[in-house]
Specification:
three-stranded antiparallel sheet, 12 strands
């Protein structure tokens, strides 16, 4: 905020140095330039952002190597003294900074340690920071995101002579370094996956697979541990897990890579096993029904066999009885041949009775024949049932294997759904806490804004914004 704007707003004639000293002593402002003050709380936040340690520094090494080679080629091609080309890295996009190279640093050697100035961004003026300690331009993240810039994009910083400091202009060339883009995207994907793992509380196995897929060429064991620590996952079982799966290969000493094709085939095979287990369970139920039917048929067969045995026994007894009667009649016939004439009528009656008996025997013989035919049919039916049982047993074995595979797949899906539900519940609780905290901050802000010194400070801040707009115009 410009101090002259404060004096004009309140229409007072304070001594400039005295007013600046008063605002600094209030503890709410800090002097950035001789006639420019800034909110101390916001300024400290900017410094905190710049001093945050880069957790992905190990993984950016490959990107830095190709970035240095690409910048060397730009230096060879760059011959214009009033413009320089700059290649964006994943770190620049993540923090919203533009880290000055040695050649660009010469342009800012006469600048103060901390400076806030306007820069032309594709025709739009925007205020940004220069920090000599960190050798960087800061507060460009919104512009990066607005133009959907990615690692490897080449920017052009040009300048012309101005009243106090040069007039800077930053434009997008439309070109992109392929190798820097590839390595930077890999680091960005790793950071995004680690944030996802923390939010969803993924297990060690899922997190390890996601990290290894980001680096198909392989990662050192220490790098893997570092990535898992960023995802807040326990690494105690890491080495045993690396040795447990065939698609995780140790290509060098403590350097592991994930064979993605083998991994996909491995889990496809597990899915097939679970589907087979499901089909096996279905077959088990079908076989259980078939076995019940076989038992019913076996019971019916036993009943028929018992009935047949009983009829055969009765037939034998009756046949023996008839044979005995025939023998008695034959004896009587011999004894009564002398009395044949007298007993002729009796003999005729006996012959008629004999015919009746023979007719009954014939009837019993026909019944025996039909029973034998029924017995043969039952034997054929029994053989057919035995063949069917053998076939059902074979299909039962196959169905059991398929059902077991399906059970494993369903268990895994249940575990994934449970994990997803837990993560959603956790995110909901965090959202409620943040909402309550925001309401509390809003009430505190309303109470603070009710004091006249705060209203004075806000008015001063508004004047600075008005001056910045006037300068950009």
């Amino acid at each position: 905020m410009a101090v002259e704007k404060v004096k004009e707003f309140f229409d007072v004639n304070f001594e400039l140095e005295r007013l600046i000293n008063y605002l600094e002593k209030s503890g709410l402002f800090v002097r950035i330039m001789p006639d420019l003050i800034f909110s101390k709380r916001v300024f400290n936040k900017l410094l905190d952002k710049l001093s945050v340690e880069d957790q992905l520094e190990l993984f950016r090494q490959s990107e830095q190597d190709v970035l240095q080679e690409a910048e060397l080629m730009l230096i060879i091609k760059d011959t214009n003294p009033t413009k320089r080309q700059y290649i964006l890295s994943s770190r620049d996009l993540e923090t919203g900074r533009l880290s000055l190279t040695k050649r660009l640093s010469k342009t800012f050697r006469d600048f103060p340690e901390v400076c806030y100035f306007n820069i032309d961004l594709n025709g739009k003026s925007k205020g940004i920071w220069y920090f000599a300690k960190y050798n960087t331009l800061f507060d460009l993240k919104d512009w990066y995101e607005e133009n959907k810039l990615e690692p490897g994009h080449i920017l052009e910083l040009s300048w012309s002579e101005g009243d106090v400091i040069p007039n800077f202009k930053l434009t997008i060339t439309g070109e992109r370094e392929a190798e820097v883009h590839s390595e930077g995207k890999r680091v960005i994907e790793l950071a995004r996956f680690c944030r996802k793992a923390r939010c969803e509380q993924l297990d060690l196995e899922t997190t390890l697979f996601g990290i290894m897929e980001c680096f198909p060429a392989g990662l050192h064991l220490d790098y893997i541990r570092k990535a898992l620590e960023m995802a807040e996952v326990n690494t105690n079982q890491l080495e045993s897990l690396l040795s447990a799966y065939p698609f995780l290969e140790e290509i060098d000493s403590q350097v592991w890579r994930c064979n993605i094709a083998m991994k996909n085939s491995y889990f496809d095979f597990l899915n097939q096993i679970m589907e087979a287990q499901k089909e096996l369970e279905t077959a088990r139920r079908e076989v259980a029904g078939s076995l019940a039917e076989v038992l019913n048929l076996q019971t019916e067969k036993d009943n028929l066999y018992e009935e047949l045995t009983y009829l055969q026994k009765v037939h034998r007894e009756e046949q023996a009885l008839y044979q005995q009667k025939l023998s008695e009649l034959a004896v009587q016939n011999e004894h009564y041949q002398i009395e044949n004439a007298k007993l002729k009528s009796e003999l005729e009656r006996l012959k008629e009775h004999e015919k009746e008996l023979l007719q009954e025997i014939h009837t019993q013989g026909e019944q025996l024949t039909s029973l034998r035919k029924e017995k043969n049919k039952l034997k054929v039916r029994n053989e057919q049932l035995e063949n069917k049982v053998i076939q059902v047993q074979g299909s039962l074995v196959r169905s059991l294997e398929e059902a077991e595979s399906e059970i494993i797949r369903l268990k895994k899906q249940v575990a994934e759904k449970s994990s997803h539900i837990d993560s959603l519940q956790y995110a909901n609780r965090e959202l409620q806490k943040n909402l309550a905290r925001l309401h509390e901050e809003r009430r505190d802000m309303k109470r603070k804004l009710s004091y006249w010194p705060v209203r004075l400070i806000l008015a001063l801040l508004g004047l600075t914004n008005g001056r910045n707009k006037a300068v950009s115009g």
